[in-house]
């Protein structure tokens, strides 16, 4: 029985490897211009002199799919994904009539079959609550499948070699939103183990697993002691945090400050410069809600404590949290994007393109991990001062402002914003504020990102677009109808469209669920931005 169980786990891992290579092929075909997606219009076909190599490689791949089809027929092997199926696709006539018929009849049929399988298994999943159909493979056929996967990977590598290094890096980043879905810890771990050198998949899947396990544990830590769950205690005594004093009085209320962390745990005498963010709590809350808030704080700290997060997530590692009744105002605050906006030291155009791309990819991966930010604005984007002597070189951003973040699920408790300001409300979707507001969703995060991208494009703060007579609805309409269209002349059509998609919530159209809306966000907002250069 143990051998059969090990065989089943090994075979499941092989199928995830196959799924990764199938996704690589689909993503490459979309980038190369071979797939037509009715949601996005006809793809732009490349006029490339290597078309003969491409056509021969695709024919070899179609033969591999045919071999896989025989195995599937014999053993009932089925690939499953939590994502809704992609629409039926057709290859263009790029290769000419004769070759096009071969591609259409052989490869396009197989790709479409994967989508049909997804539909059938989605129905079965409602009955079995399983992401992978249980199966067993004979040793000889398992070896054959392993060889098939290696061949497919080699063919894919050859196709990807035709792309530039920038395009290859972008398409690798597309794999995480495509594949890291679902709520099954075991299968996410199998995906991470099967990912090989696809460096974005494993850390994103592991981060999602970490979030799911923390939610399941529902640990409520005891201050200054051991967590009730037996996990590492991240609650730091307040005496170990020493705040830096500013050279002069700080005029506005500080949401974060620079401090020194004196870590004396286990006999160590370590001093580290850290950044402290405050989260305001309502003292009048009942005991159960206070416990929920503390549990949420502990879960968030542990999620951000993970050091193996994807580098593209651009979120600092969290050392822990303190419980403090006093919020100091006169402290040294770090420099943020908000501080640089509106000044005479305008960031270079190329740096603004990169800044917009890195922030968009960061949010995409955060959502892929199953977490909502709920506080995206220019004040939440850290620009390290010691690395950036001037705002004309915007550098690489870090995403902060997680005080109201929560898991992206229907059962998670959503904190009320205690002290909303007119400035912070400028980044909130009209339906995400006010007494009759909707429950916060990914699209509301994406809307806030659109406002930040608008600020980056004009290099102006959002309040410069605001008028005291505006309601939230009128302000949003003005951004969409008047200001965002002007970005075309300043930042180009691609950038303008990315901002409008975020602000208008166009990702809802054609998306059949959160997972597909997430993939839409990557392809329509994140993916086009690196193509912009200056």
How would you describe the overall organization of this protein?
The radius of gyration is 25 Å and the shape is globular. The chain has 16 helices and seven strands. It has 534 residues and is mainly alpha-helical. Helix content is 48%, strand content 5%. α2 (51-75) packs parallel to α3, α7 (201-217) packs antiparallel against α8 (287-305) and α10 (349-368) packs antiparallel against α16. The protein has three domains: 2-213, Four Helix Bundle (Hemerythrin (Met), subunit A) (Up-down Bundle); 240-334, no CATH class; 336-534, Transferase(Phosphotransferase), domain 1 (Orthogonal Bundle).
Helix content: 40-55%
Structural class of the helix and strand makeup? mainly alpha
Q: How many structural domains are formed by the residues?
A: 3
Let me know the average pLDDT.
Answer: 76
Model regions low in confidence, pLDDT < 50 over at least 5 residues: 1-7, 75-108, 125-139, 219-230
Map the helices and strands.
Elements: H1 2-32, H2 51-75, H3 97-128, H4 139-160, H5 165-179, H6 185-194, H7 201-217, E1 241-243, E2 256-263, E3 270-277, H8 287-305, H9 337-340, H10 349-368, E4 371-372, E5 381-382, E6 398-399, E7 406-407, H11 422-425, H12 442-458, H13 472-483, H14 487-491, H15 493-504, H16 514-526
Antiparallel strand pairs: 1-2, 2-3, 4-7, 5-6
Helix pairs in contact: 1-4, 1-5, 1-6, 2-3, 2-4, 5-7, 6-7, 7-8, 10-12, 10-16, 12-15, 15-16
């Amino acid at each position: 029985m143990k051998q059969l169980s090990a065989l089943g786990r090994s075979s499941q891992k092989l199928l995830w490897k196959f799924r990764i290579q199938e996704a690589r092929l689909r993503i490459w075909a979309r980038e190369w211009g071979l797939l037509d997606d009715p949601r996005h219009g006809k793809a732009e076909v490349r006029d490339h002199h290597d078309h003969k190599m491409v056509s021969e490689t695709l024919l070899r791949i179609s033969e591999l799919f045919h071999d896989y089809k025989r195995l599937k027929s014999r053993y009932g092997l089925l690939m499953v994904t939590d994502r809704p199926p992609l629409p039926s696709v057709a290859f263009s006539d790029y290769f000419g009539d004769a070759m096009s018929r071969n591609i259409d009849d052989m490869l396009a049929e197989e790709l479409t079959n994967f989508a049909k399988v997804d539909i059938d298994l989605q129905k079965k999943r409602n009955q079995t609550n399983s992401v992978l159909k249980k199966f067993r493979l004979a040793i000889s056929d398992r070896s054959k499948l392993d060889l098939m996967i290696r061949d497919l990977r080699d063919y894919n590598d050859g196709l990807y070699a035709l792309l530039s290094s920038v395009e290859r890096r972008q398409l690798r980043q597309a794999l995480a939103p495509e594949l890291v879905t679902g709520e099954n810890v075991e299968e996410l771990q199998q995906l991470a183990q099967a990912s090989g050198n696809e460096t974005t998949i494993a850390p994103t899947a592991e981060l999602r697993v970490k979030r799911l396990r923390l939610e399941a544990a529902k640990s409520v830590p005891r201050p200054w002691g051991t967590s009730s769950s037996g996990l590492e205690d991240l609650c730091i005594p307040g005496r170990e945090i020493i705040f830096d004093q500013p050279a002069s009085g700080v005029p506005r209320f500080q949401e974060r400050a620079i401090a020194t962390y004196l870590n004396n745990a286990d006999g160590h005498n370590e001093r580290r410069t850290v950044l402290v963010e405050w989260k305001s709590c309502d003292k009048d809350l009942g005991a159960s809600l206070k416990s929920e808030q503390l549990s949420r704080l502990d879960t968030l700290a542990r999620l951000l404590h993970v050091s193996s997060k994807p580098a593209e997530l651009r979120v600092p590692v969290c050392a822990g949290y303190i419980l403090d009744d006093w919020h100091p105002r006169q402290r040294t605050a770090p420099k943020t994007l908000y501080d640089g906006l509106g000044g005479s030291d305008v960031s270079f155009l190329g740096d603004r393109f990169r800044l917009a791309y890195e922030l968009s990819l960061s949010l995409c991966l955060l959502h892929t991990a199953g977490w909502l930010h709920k506080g995206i604005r220019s004040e939440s984007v850290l620009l390290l001062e010691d690395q950036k002597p001037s705002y004309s070189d915007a550098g690489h951003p870090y995403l902060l402002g997680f005080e109201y973040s929560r898991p992206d699920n229907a059962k998670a408790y959503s904190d009320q914003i205690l002290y909303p300001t007119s400035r912070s409300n400028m980044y909130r979707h009209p339906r995400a504020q006010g007494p009759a507001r909707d429950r916060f969703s990914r699209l509301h995060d994406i809307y806030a990102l659109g406002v930040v991208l608008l600020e980056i494009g004009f290099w102006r703060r959002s309040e410069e677009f605001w008028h005291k007579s505006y309601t939230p609805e009128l302000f949003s309409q003005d951004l969409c109808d008047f200001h965002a269209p002007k970005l075309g002349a300043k930042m180009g059509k691609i950038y303008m469209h990315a901002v409008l998609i975020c602000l208008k919530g166009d990702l809802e159209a054609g998306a059949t669920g959160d997972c597909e809306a997430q993939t839409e966000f990557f392809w329509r907002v994140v993916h086009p931005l690196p193509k912009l250069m200056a």
